[in-house]
Amino acid sequence: MYRIKRSMLAVIFIALILLAGVVTVNSQEYVLEPGDTLQIVILGEKEQQFTLVIRPDGYINLPIIGEIKIADMTIPDLTAELVERYRVYIRNPIITVILVKMHQEQVQVLGDVRTPGVFTLLPGANAIDAIMRAGGPNAFADLSRVTVQRRDQSDIISLDLSGMSDGIFKTDFLVRDGDIIFVPRNTIRVAVIGEVNKPGVYEIGKDGRLLDALMMAGGLTSKAKTGKITVYNGDDFNSDTGNKIEPVFQGNMMNNPKLASEQVVYVPRSYIWDIGIVTSVLSALSILKSLFGL
What we know:
Elements: H1 2-20, E1 37-43, E2 47-53, E3 59-62, E4 66-69, H2 75-86, E5 94-101, E6 105-111, E7 117-121, H3 127-133, E8 146-149, E9 156-159, E10 180-183, E11 187-194, E12 200-205, H4 210-216, E13 229-233, E14 249-251, E15 263-267, H5 275-292
Parallel strand pairs: 6-10, 11-15
Antiparallel strand pairs: 1-2, 1-5, 3-4, 6-7, 8-9, 8-10, 11-12, 13-14, 13-15
């Protein structure tokens, strides 16, 4: 009769805890970690109930048996271990262990994402989960070169998450507390000057072409000469020496050549090329040179 009473009490305790709200996980497989919160109910000659948080060293402290390391154990393993230890002091103990709250991982996501910052994730979250918590990648994010810096490691971990751009949201790489995830930007910088609506230095995609740069610069003015657009390598300019500068491309914009980082696109006016235009170009390029840091 006493055994039946104790069993009924155990059921009541468990029901009350569940009604209070606990984490839904597969208790047979979940591996306990520091920061997890446990509810431990011990039924013997009297009923005892404890709410404990696993310490950073992986231990908890219980009456009678004292310190016990439980990190890296499953809940069934812990339950069996507690029954074995308390059996010495309590006749036929009934012990229930319930995971009330899982520890949380704090991860920093930086780089070319919509909302960089520090985010709290549940155990089992992967690198893609972290990036999506940061709002997802921006249009020019280079998902093939994502890096992770771990708190306890000096080496940088490289990840290829390029499948995200194809709608593949799977990775085996699980994040840890303290991880710093960096998503680089897959762009090049080019200068666009001359007969465009918004001359300046712009970022375009790594495989960007002439038309991409012209669109970033607001398109052509009505005076633009589209058949003689010129592209220069930015590091060829040295206003002090007066060396002749050879363009890497000169022709119709519809040829749409691929651009390289720190190149300069010049759109002339629709009249004959003369030394005055060349002088104005070189003057503008000297300014762009300082912007590029050349």
